[in-house]
Amino acid sequence: MTDEPHGFDRGLTNYGDRDFARYLRRSFARSMGISVGLLDKPVVGIAMTPSGFNNCHRGMSDLVEAVSRGVLAAGALPRPFPTVSLGEVFLNPTSMMYRNLMAMDTEEMIQAQPMDAVVLIGGCDKTVPAQLMGAASADLPAIQLVTGPMSTGRHKGQRLGACTDCRGFWAKYRAGTVDAEEIAEVEGRLSVTQGTCAVMGTASTMACIAEALGMSLPGTAAIPAVHSDRLVAAEETGRAAVRLIRSKVRPSQVITEKSVENAIRVLMAVSGSTNAIVHLTAIAGRLGIRIPYERFNQISEETPVLVDLKPVGEGYMEDFHAAGGMGALLRELRPLLHLDTVDVEGRTLAERLDEPVGWVDRAVIRASDNPVSAVGGLVALTGNLAPEGAIFKRAAATPQLFESEGRAVVFTGLEDLSRRIDDPDLDVAPGDVLVLQNAGPHAAGMPEAGYLPIPKKLARAGVKDMVRISDARMSGTAFGSIVLHVAPEAAIGGPLAAVRDGDRIRLSIRDKRIDLLVEADEIARRLADHRPPPVPARGYKALYRRSVTQAPEGCDFDFLAKAEG
Ligand code: FES
């Protein structure tokens, strides 16, 4: 330890008398039953996020206990503290609106409370991004621990995992091939343990990204939530946090342009969630790092998909862990990675990958010369419909639709969509393009509404996929030929707002373009009278609307991102 104040002596409360502040703090700490000997130890904060509205964090108390054990064993004092917790399916209008609130809470509580390092425990989709954003801005030594993925359930001999199978069964129910009785049975078999969604959705993608960035311990991203190794990882994370106090490795040394590029490689190789692009952009943005879409596409073209998991492939996260997990994947990607990045242990990626890898299940984690796909799972598009960009998950789409042109069927917002999508009189045909407007960050908080359902009358006729376009996001567990994150969004006058029923739209994945086949003059004429919706009068929603950026900037608040460089 240095002579700098540490532990409870850090950041004393302002009373105008430092000695009084220290005396009072120690007295109140003793009221928590902390012995005098421990009062002088360095302190590890544990940002914990249990909530009765967050099923994915049900195992939080066991994780906090295990982290605390590790911290104590390594000679420091653990101090768990709560922050906002975001349970994906329990928030209205969408968890995305509150990610930045959680990030602010995390940053401010790390800075305001006396701790020498912090362990961040999150899991559900928005929680890990929020914690990494907050930790990057606070820039105190920090380490991420995830709650881990759920284990699968069973239904009539079939493995089920949230939430790709949720969507698969719902699509069958809409198409009439699964009845009400069976869908009720399936409802109880999709999410059967604690932990995050069982497939390579947003939560699992972000867990892999946290490890690829170097912000969590090697090999911890994919350990199932209920596995005893998850608790061992938690204990070791606690010990590592104490080592961080001594090494003083900060998030700004771990999250660098090179480690962000490594994380994008991993995102491509696992064919991860489209949401992760927004989140990784926001995390990097907190440190002034920008990865333009051109570079993103370059990485996508160079990086094969190597992991065969749902929603793109067959397996579940528990299979990925048993197959060798991130260690095995990173070794296959080695020639493409920046090897001089450092992790929270201060080790370079080269040092990590020089260690021998154990057995690898090549059915789940392919060798680089036998990929699932030769190119990455995600691409960025541009064009007159998305001048600032859009995202397309080609790995989860129908290749026959990659080069296509169709007639627009436009929904002007979420209510319009839910009111008319199943209307038997809706003028829609299989080759049409479904367009959803006003579901972007300003209009609606950017919900996961981009996975527009196939109109019931077409689903019942056997149509399984159509080109769909919106300024919304989609769940990382979803699939289909879906153009997302269109920017600028319709609500602020982006060209998406100019699309009318019957317009022609062309998608070209080869050229990475999405275009409205309407003359520029006509598009300008249609947008001339556009007015954004009014800003809410008060509270967090007003702050959100005034400050949220578009998807290519990570939907962070403009006053929280750091200037580039
Ligand atoms: Fe929490 Fe899917 S709902 S990870």
Brief sketch in words of this structure:
This protein has 565 residues and is an alpha/beta fold. The chain has helices spanning 18-30, 36-39, 60-73, 96-112, 127-138, 164-175, 180-187, 202-213, 228-247, 251-254, 257-269, 275-285, 293-302, 317-323, 325-333, 349-354, 414-420, 441-444, 456-459, 520-527, 539-547, and strands at 43-48, 77-82, 117-122, 142-146, 153-155, 158-160, 378-381, 389-393, 403-411, 433-436, 467-470, 482-487, 504-508, 513-516.
List the helices and strands and how they pair.
Layout (H helix, E strand, L loop, with lengths): L17 H13 L5 H4 L3 E6 L11 H14 L3 E6 L13 H17 L4 E6 L4 H12 L3 E5 L6 E3 L2 E3 L3 H12 L4 H8 L14 H12 L14 H20 L3 H4 L2 H13 L5 H11 L7 H10 L14 H7 L1 H9 L15 H6 L23 E4 L7 E5 L9 E9 L2 H7 L12 E4 L4 H4 L11 H4 L7 E4 L11 E6 L16 E5 L4 E4 L3 H8 L11 H9 L18
Parallel strand pairs: 1-2, 1-3, 3-4, 9-10, 10-11, 11-12
Antiparallel strand pairs: 5-6, 7-8, 8-12, 9-13, 13-14
Helix pairs in contact: 3-9, 4-5, 5-12, 6-7, 8-11, 8-12, 11-12
The structure holds FE2/S2 (inorganic) cluster.
